[in-house]
Amino acid sequence: MRSRTQFSDIPEVIISIIFGLVKEIRTRNRMALVCKKWRELERATRLELCVRGNISNLYYVPSCFQGVTTLDLSQVSPWGYPVLDASSSHTQMIGYILKQAFPSVQNITIYARNARNIDMLPRLWPDIRHVKLVRWHQPANDPEAPYGELLPLLVECKQLQTLDLSQFYCWTEVVASALLYASSFSANLSSLNLLTLSTDGFKAAELTAISEACRNLQELYAVCLFDSRYILECVGDEALVTVAKNCTRIRVLHLVDKAAFGDLRGDPEEEFSSEDAKISRQGLEEMFRSLPSLEDLVLDVSQNVWDSGPALEFLGLQCKKIRALKLGHFHGVCKGPRPDGIAMCSNLERLCIKNCADLCDVGLEAIATGCFRLGKLKLQGCKQITEYGVKFCSSKLRKTLVDVSVSCCKHLDTAATLRALEPIRDRVRKLHIDCIWDKSIIEQASNDKSLERLEFVGVGSSCSSSNQLLYSRENQSPKCTSWEPSLELGLPDLNHADLDADSVILDTTMENDSLDLNASLYCEHSGSHSCIYLEHGKHISMGQKENVSRYVVSNVADSRAMDVDMKASEVEHDVSSDPDFVSSMGFMDFLGVNKKHQDLQMLEDVSDERLELTEGGCQMWSTTGVSSIRTSLENMEFEWPNKRKCINGLTVTEHCAGMYEQKRLCHRRDQRRCSTWTSLKSLSLWMPVGEMLTPLAEMGLEQCPMLEEIKIQVEGDCRLCPKPREQACGLSSLACYPSLSKLELDCGEVIGFALSAPAGQMDLSLWERWYLNGLRGLHLSQLNYWPPQDKDMNRRGLSLPAAGLLSECVTLRKLFVHGTAHEHFMMMFLRIPNLRDVQLREDYYPAHDNDTCTEMRTESCKRFEENLASRQFSD
């Protein structure tokens, strides 16, 4: 017998290739637990590793990943503590252990607090090619290093190709002078990221010097000074053309103004800048002519660039490889209706337009027509676009568009944006919107929730003449003791605020277990009671409405009974003949069905209608119309007379009026299906301070079965906000998303009182409680939290209420607090049973240069991590 081929029979070389294609960390960890062979293969094929844990526990450093080429040491705890410090007595031993554990490192990310930390890198890994430095503190002035801390790194690492300073606080003039001084080594750089956190952007002379020193650059990212009020220092046509001519091989060019750096939302009511940038059409065309390999361009300035359409047309003609484009304060990018300007860049896959004064719906139509390959579209601060233009784009780009961001657009609130994206609801994967609620939708939802519905449950064969079904304001549930319901009737809510009826009593007597819908339904009114009778052998058509209306109280929940054998056309004619009668009655239709019509069970999904299918062979389908109830009756009693007989086994004709309800049902099902965001995995929200999060589902984001990650950014000055009436912002409302596992709550731009507040004002601890209340109802595995800050005191720390609420999220595995905290606050996190990774990071600017005695220090972090590691974990 021929044996089956097992996975282990595949050659080890092929299995190694398969292992190398797996990038997700937790998946690789699970693969390593299968068997010893898989464990060895996983270790040998792992190329990336992020080291966590305390640097003092050197015996925890793994030595089995000899093939790792990308190493991240920036998250070693305690965060902010330098891993390689030449002044420390343990530095040589730490460096030796790291060198033996990771001999093949070519790409490293490390926290460098001072120049001595950077000096250790060339000694350990002289052949390193990619370096990313992290520091959020102000650098110290070192008179012995006039060219800054970067010069030894540039000179000694001769194979250095990539230098990333995007998270490294440094002086712009020091970077430019170091690169220019070591120009022979800087010429080897292919990628330079200078989106630094410094106070000033790079001036025109500094940007020109960098381009002269690094002539082989293929990627350049820089924060620049575009403000034209600095006449000799601002970046304009001359500097842009010089950079393009010096670095003709550039594929990625990102130049961002310092005022636009940080990507804050802004105010949609604020006027555009009155200053014009020193960038012209001729200068842009000259720059594009020198960059034939350009693929990704970002020109995000804070001053106006007028009549940019012709230059962008030249970009599409000259730079055939352009795939991504981001423009800020560029006007005239596309006028339409025919494709022009930016719409001529037909190869674009990602497009971001910020603060464009004249972009309207016609321009969006032209962009959607010309840029038919767009997969990512971001619109920010475009005040003339409306729901129509965005909807046209989403319809035109339905096959490709999967990433959409709409922010700070004056005519697009949350509901309008989501309505505009209806054509791609089943395709979009990433979405960013502003939480600007439509008040009318909130009021309508509130009214719908406040309406109370009255439901009559019919009787079966075991019902006696003395049975009563009672509804009252105190108890809305039906009470029945001796019979099972075989019939449901839906009537207007008699407990409405405009109706003063205290109770409704239904006396029932039925001889058979079914109801004759060919019998007529009529009402009698006597005193303070109104009775509905069903008389066998008669029917009341719409032409006989006078006989009905004389028995019915005006403007009460009136009903009409329909003969099921009446043609639908006759019903429509009777209804259309006297619309006042229909509007004043609030009619109710009764349709009988047979047991053989079991296919009508699909109607059970409708929320407004009830369908009861019983074994007795009688089913009732009732539909309640909207009625105007203005009576002030104290009591209303509806009873079925005792001597009314029912006929079993009614049939329904094809032209029954129930076809209208089936059509209505299909429409509701289509609407429900379309309102589901089936592919959405990442959602980003912007919220003004003090705004509630609960209306998010009502705006149109109720059903997101695949949503895994939500990012919430809150901005504003809470010192100007009154105390909220609610106890929480509504974080618990996110529990409606079943797959949600990651949350980023960024309150870093919320400004308030850190320690004390005037009378009637809330301090930041109470605001933290307001935002984090409800967190325990979410099943999160990872949480990133930025506490609010007091910029006057330069403090962003975790308060006691925030620490307590964070500890209530029992499903957390990773917790990152981007701020400071007291040690006893951090000890609350030990209550979380499966918490594996906790970091306290001061990764904000300006961060504390020295930790005070009341906040987390190195020894405090060590004690907390020892307690965290001493626990047993289930997995």
What can be said about this structure in brief?
By secondary structure, the chain is of the alpha/beta class. The chain contains 25 helices and 30 strands.
Biggest pleated sheet: 20 strands, parallel
- Helices, by number, come to 25
**Average pLDDT level:** 76
Cα-to-Cα separation, first versus last residue: 41 Å
β-strand amount: 15-25%
Output the structural class: alpha/beta
Spans of at least 5 consecutive residues whose pLDDT stays below 50 are: 452-661, 667-673
What is the strand tally?
30
Q: Using only CA atoms, what is the Rg?
A: 35 Å
Identify the overall geometry: globular
Structure report:
By secondary structure, this protein is an alpha/beta fold. Among the domains are: 447-667, no CATH class; 675-869, Leucine-rich repeat, LRR (right-handed beta-alpha superhelix) (Alpha-Beta Horseshoe). It is 25% helix and 19% strand. The protein is built from 25 helices and 30 strands. β6, α9 and β7 (219-224) form a beta-alpha-beta unit. α9 (204-213) runs parallel beside α10, α10 (237-246) packs parallel to α11 and α11 packs parallel to α12 (309-318).
